[in-house]
């Protein structure tokens, strides 16, 4: 599928990337314009922030056992998808503008496929988080009883689907044999593929918003029945705190990615008057900005996560054994909430085995993964 590949009738395998750009009306400048410098500078700055911040989130989840629950594994995988997005976008920054002309068709498809894979992984992670929250909230739990093995099977499945979606255009859904159907924004992609990809993601967004709306309605109705019980109120506040954090993550994701997907959809539908090329680069930068929003949400919403960030940044070699300073917004484990509603002498059991013995009142419950 490169210039060494012989052409077939109606196909243009033996043509350069520049040929498809000229045919689609997306001309590549031979020199660097001020606009190119601005976009690349903004993009690379965002990339470095994204990579650093999401590495910090992943390290915090691995380091702190209070985050060893299915919901945090899924949020950690979302951070991994954002990290991959940062690396993919950084790769794009080194292969854009006048550099695009030097790309082979294979390199061009790799560049676009990395971006597609990262977005698909993020969307599927958010969908998995929505399903997990639906399952646990409707059972009035904070954490799913899903086994660790099942969580990792879901994570592997997410990445397999994401990789396949990134490879789909390379495997044949392109316009090398259908030149009139080439996209303007992505000149080697078929317009029909852009429509499919944009509609699929927008539909997934809509489903997730509907799921979270249903959960909020249910929690509000259920909270009225629990208002007279102190321990249940604490549990409700914990559930709401976690729900607010996850919903903020979803909300920012939709806000950052929807403009870009809408422009892709308009391009796929062949909207000539929409001038999609004027907004393409800026919407892509906006979409990439979403990848460092999540670590900011974690920091502001959860004191325990913020403290773990500080420990990592300060290169602390030892863990604080008593884990003081619990989350002010209750974005933590159900064990802590259960402990606050019990006395110091209460013993929690799992399959008949004591997990907490009598001890000082300021020591929180152990953060075991109760699968």
From TrEMBL:
Protein family per UniProt: Belongs to the G-protein coupled receptor 1 family.
Transmembrane stretches, start-end: 37-62, 74-94, 114-131, 151-174, 194-217, 238-262, 282-300
Annotated protein name in UniProt: Lysophosphatidic acid receptor 2b
SMART domains: 7TM_GPCR_Srsx
Keyword Disulfide bond: yes
CDD domains xref list: 7tmA_LPAR2_Edg4 (cd15342)
Superkingdom of the organism of origin: Eukaryota
Sample GO molecular function, one term: lysophosphatidic acid receptor activity
InterPro entries: GPCR_Rhodpsn, GPCR_Rhodpsn_7TM, LPA_rcpt, LPA_rcpt_EDG2
Record domain G-protein coupled receptors family 1 profile: where: 53-298
Annotated PANTHER family: G-PROTEIN COUPLED RECEPTOR (PTHR22750)
CC per GO annotation: cell surface; endosome; plasma membrane
Keywords for this protein: Cell membrane, Disulfide bond, Endosome, G-protein coupled receptor, Glycoprotein, Membrane, Receptor, Transducer, Transmembrane, Transmembrane helix
Record flagged with keyword Cell inner membrane: no
Membrane protein topology class: Multi-pass membrane protein
Cell compartments where the protein resides: Cell membrane; Cell surface; Endosome
Species, as recorded: Parambassis ranga (Indian glassy fish)
